[in-house]
User: Fold these one by one.
Assistant:
Number 1:
Amino acid sequence: MQGMSGSRITRNGLPYVNFSGINYLGWQQDPQVLDAFCESVKRYGLSTGGSRATQGVCEPHFRLETLLSEHHGKDKTLTFASGMLANLGFINAMTAKFNFSTSSGIDNRDAVLVFDRDCHWSLWKAASHLKYGESLMAFKHNDVADLERVLQNVGDRKAIVVFESVYSSDGSVAPIGEILDVCERFQALSYIDDANGFMVYGEPQRNFYEEFQHLRRADFIMISLSKSVGLEGGAISANAEYIDAFEVLSGTSIFTAAIQPPTADAAASIIEQLKQDPSIMDDYLCRSLAFRQRLLDSGLQLNDTPSYITSVLIGKDSKAEQVREQLEKQGFCVPIFRYPAVKPNQALIRLILHRYHTDAEIEGFAQSLEVLLGDSDPSRLVNEPLLVEMN
Ligand SMILES: Cc1ncc(COP(=O)(O)O)c(C=O)c1O
């Protein structure tokens, strides 16, 4: 890409209206965020300059960790350079054998991880050393009865249930309360990957309010800073005892680079702004739902859940590639999720509206999709004027 990623991008010299981005609120185009970032650079520099183990982290990391602990109602938070590293660190810690001293240590190798089948690649990758059916089990996506069945099979061993709030490919939302009820009944620990839900849901005026009221009941809450906050980094919040042990056991926070200090500072400022002004997210969600409705009105087959992640179901992997190419020719950049990200020949286009998409861009894109995938009259295609406007 040339220049910044936002509602539009230039890739290999060609301009696109971008529906592939995940930094959908466009914070990196916000002059106030950029100014605050530059001030922080002058104060803290560009890097922590050493690992947590050798030197420690900077004030912005503690600012961010304190803010996240308060937000999640937990004692402590540990930050990581990315959400992926937070997930890897969690699984490391939960399956580790480690001596803290010659007389104290921990052996988590008897633990059983129980994943929702649709968990993110980073979680499955981190657990790939575990034997499936013994230390690693899975329940059907969002299926509470199946989770119960799996936990019955775990017996007396320590179980850790791992699931997401909002799933990236189909935007489905977990029955958070019911899953946590089952965890509590079976005395299983719970880890919720809230990468996609963080700062989005949980307010009474928004969808899924009831579900997100339960989030704080999870033993561990993981977030990514690359989505609603639009920067880079990850974090896990939990009680102090867990986080203190995790600092060492995870390995992916203490023995590696931290989030860049000004990024941690800017992330804290963005989170504060989103908390102080809920209308930013309310407006975004409102437009995102209108976009979804526009696609439904075109007769497109969409994912079931009305979250801000909209997937257009295509089917054959080869057809999905053709659609992507066609859209690219018309000036739209979209991501295709195909096998192995989803089941073979259940390919989809995963769309996330950007806060700065104009109504004309949205309408132009909807009409293009309608022509390619819905029942419509091709003469209505409006991409020509759009491309002129972009140049
Ligand atoms: C559910 C989920 N977990 C974890 C991650 C990884 O987060 P990050 O991009 O911060 O590494 C993602 C990002 O795509 C995600 O969607």
Number 2:
Amino acid sequence: KVANTRRDWAHKLSTTIIRDNQAVYVENLAVAGLTRTRLATSVHDAGWSQFVAMLEYKAVRYRRHFGKIDRWFPSSKLCSACGTIAESMPLNIREWTCPCGAAHDRDVNAAINILAAGQAERLNDCGAQVRPGLVPAPREEAVTHPEPHARQTGISVL
Ligand SMILES: [Zn+2]
């Protein structure tokens, strides 16, 4: 029963996140490493891998951009205001102030950095490849063959 409740919650949250955002970026956490730390319980409880997998396939379904940020990116140590990287950032530190004067909530600062890194990576991607999905279909073709995403929008993911 607990597993079902958890999966249901993960489905609802991932659907909301994907529907409400054009692009979603996640940090590619070293889950295997975290499970050996005192954060093990929260990582397992959150079903992180399962949740990320849901985000990924729903992003495809809703034609959103989805990206994973390298796990070695210093999202927590990096000051999102000035770019300075703090020497250490133990997990128990939830708020910190950079020498530049910027006061940070650990998670909000990390989220800002992950978003910026994801957007930078996406710009590189766009320059390197042409995406067939972004090419509009000719008018007559659109009439005889509705675009795939037009049909998908009606499908409930729950
Ligand atoms: Zn700073």
